[in-house]
Write a structure and sequence with these properties.
The chain is an all-alpha fold. The chain is built from nine helices and two strands, in the order αααααααββαα. The protein has a two-stranded antiparallel sheet.
Length: 273
Amino acid sequence: MDEIRKTLNTSILKLLRPLVRLLLRNGVTYGDFADLSRWVFMDVAAKDFGVPGRKQTVSRVSVITGLTRKEVSRLQKIETPDDSAISHQYNRAARVISGWMRDKRFLDKKGAPAPLHFDQGKHSFSDLVREHSGDIPPRAILDELIRVGTVAKDAEGKINLITDGYVPRTGETSKLHILGTDVQLLLSTIDYNLQQGAQTPHFQRKVAYNNLAQEGIPDFRRLSAEKSQALLVELDKVLSQQDRDINPEVTGTGRKEAGIGIYYFERDVNEDK
């Protein structure tokens, strides 16, 4: 157990270092982080560590977390910060890009996303948004995609897709939302695999070498981006066929979210150790 705790402590320090760097850069103090941490400890203990068949109590949450009963009671009355509006916008914009890349009605003769008029022609940008974004106005989606650098207008006024996915290049709020969703999913996969052991683990792999010359990095960065994007596009087509929002005729029980994330990393050896 001591060895497990030691390894866990080392891992926590490693994952906290880039997080703290990001927090300090955005003006979040230790006090702010501590308040959020206390609330999450309380909430996770209350929701995920109860005794089956028994109501979770303030006393049990206090014992599990090390927080005082008074502190637990106070934290239970605090509402959590809500970014549901940003999440909704992110998901809708991503679905528009995905639809543009795979829906044959919005592809050119080569199978690439076609330049689209905003609301003219048989298959316009407005048609694309209405088909794949639900109730979000086409103008709002267009403004967002232009703002983050995902689309641009050409000399004819047509809207062109210039990146293969909705990854904000401007706008700190949207980028920080990705921090909360993507890192959460990665940590959840690691947690699941640790609990399951060898029983049906979720896929989690990486390839890395730590004695690479700087000159070889650009080619690998380019190749990894191309291969990764191609895989994501292929898997997007598979998942979209099973999504009931896109294909209402798909039947089945429950409501699952599933996917795969790919990330590139590069750093100097001995950094953050």
